[in-house]
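Hi there,

I know you've been waiting on this one. I reran it after we fixed the sequence typo, so this is the corrected version. Both the input and the resulting structure follow.
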Amino acid sequence: MNILICDDDDGVRDMAREILQDQGYTVECVRNGQEAIGRIINAPETYRVLLLDWYMPVMDGAAVIEWLNTSPAWRTSVIVMTASPDELRVPHAILRKPFDINRLLSMLEIEAAVA
């Protein structure tokens, strides 16, 4: 399963990528929503899951989701990552940061089963 990680924190991106690759996932990383949208436009069928940080510079998670909702090419799942999950009202899975890797792996297993 191909995963796109979108997070401005180098440590979060690197840790998540390493763990997920060790679990057999194919992972690509970007630093902000603008870069994520660029990847999605160039390869819309590539990613099964987008791990999306909510608070980022350049383009935040809310703007990415707004764009995704208008994009007919986007047919993958979003898992929003945030340290403040109680503030969010989104119809996507939410993963509290710092995240428990077992929780993330469970969420990905569910996504894989749905695919």
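Quick highlight: The first helix runs from residue 10 to 22.

Best,
R. S.
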